[in-house]
Amino acid sequence: CLHFPTLIASADSRPAALFRVTRSLLKGEEVREPLQGRAEEFVQFLSDKITQIRTDLDSTWTIPAEMPRASLNQIFWDDFEFVTPEEVDKAMGAMSASTCLLDPCPSWLVSA
């Protein structure tokens, strides 16, 4: 029988096709589950999970008797050192041009 050697040879540089041929030789044809209705099942599962998480959060949430609040009346400008535009330029020039997703403001944007 030359059918399978031909299939294997035709899948020479395509690993996915070669695995399909190998799987069909070892397991035979698998009956695939129809996809119709799977999206609805997933949406229902996700919706139920979100509801469960919200319920669990609501049941453990307690409001303290007194909520601490930040005072907006006190601003401590004396704690900051004033810098000149030249010092800012010098600091920006010393920065690496590489960026990170966590950068609040990428250096390429500021130095442009």
Describe the structure.
It is a single chain. The chain has helices at residues 3-10, 15-27, 38-60, 85-94, 107-111. The protein has 112 residues and is mainly α. It has a domain at 1-29. The model has no long low-confidence stretch (mean pLDDT 75).
The secondary-structure class comes to mainly alpha
Distance between the termini: 68 Å
Shape: flat
Radius of gyration: 31 Å
Total strand segments: 0
Query: Order of SSEs, N→C?
Result: HHHHH
Which structural traits does this protein have?
112 residues, mainly alpha, 5 helices, 53% helix
Q: What's the helix and strand layout?
A:
Elements: H1 3-10, H2 15-27, H3 38-60, H4 85-94, H5 107-111
Helix pairs in contact: 1-2
